[in-house]
Amino acid sequence: MPTVKEYTTANKPTWCPGCGNFGMWEALKRAFSELEMEFHDYSIVWGIGCHGNGADFTKTAGFHALHGRALPVATALSLARPDVKVIVEMGDGDGYGLGMGHFVHSVRRNIDMTCIAHNNQIYGLTTGQASPTTEHLMKTVSTPDGVLEEPVNPIGLALAQGASFVARGFAGDIPHLAELFKKAITHSGFALVDVFQPCVTFNRLNTFSWFRERVYKLEETAHDVTDRTAAFDLSLTTFHEMTCAPDECRVPIGIYYLDEELPTYNEGVDAAAEPGWRQAEEPRDISKVMASLG
Known about the structure:
Blueprint: H1 20-34, E1 42-46, H2 54-57, E2 63-64, H3 70-80, E3 85-91, H4 92-98, H5 100-109, E4 113-119, H6 154-160, E5 165-170, H7 174-186, E6 190-196, H8 208-212, E7 215-217, H9 228-235, E8 251-258, H10 270-273, H11 276-279, H12 287-292
Parallel strand pairs: 1-2, 1-3, 3-4, 4-6, 5-6, 7-8
Antiparallel strand pairs: 5-8
């Protein structure tokens, strides 16, 4: 069984000191190790953003996709290689902005993959513009008078589109996050783990201390993970004004919803049962097709 350290390459991380990406990176490696996953058991697809630098630091056969395009790449990988656990790492601007259409369709298809969203509520790589999940009224370099829109609700969107596994984590609680990752990876179907991952450089509102005063674990409550309506109601509790006090807005982390019976898209595709790379081992006779083309 590989140790946590063995999932790391020789490249040193270039994230800002204190970045929430470090906690997420550590939690994922712990999950791999505790699941006894070898390097050929999984593959990771990254989007563009600070999180994408993890492609240099994580030992895997993976792919660094274009901005917002990690999910379609991962979909192809999931269908072609059903023997591999496919993991997508995307940012809030990357996956919920430019890639929002891919996100919604990946959810409704119930593609067999784990989607880990690095939600720092800001565009960190491009120096602090407002992202789709930035707090209402928060001032940024692109919204000097404050963000006018309400933030995107990825948990609510996933639930509305019929997601079979929806969870939220916090990068400041690595053991809890590692457990969420393990459950998501072993789930059959589309598993979303949206992780609040503080940006210590450009988001001075949603800090580690801000979250620690507000997060609570769903498994310590009476929440029923099979109740989609209750899960959707919970998703609305994270919409709040930037000035709210800890007792006015609390942030639930843990599994919101779980459906272990929903069929996956992969199960209905012949390519998933008989991958193209296996079919290609025997040359096909296309002479009739070529003759028909004149």
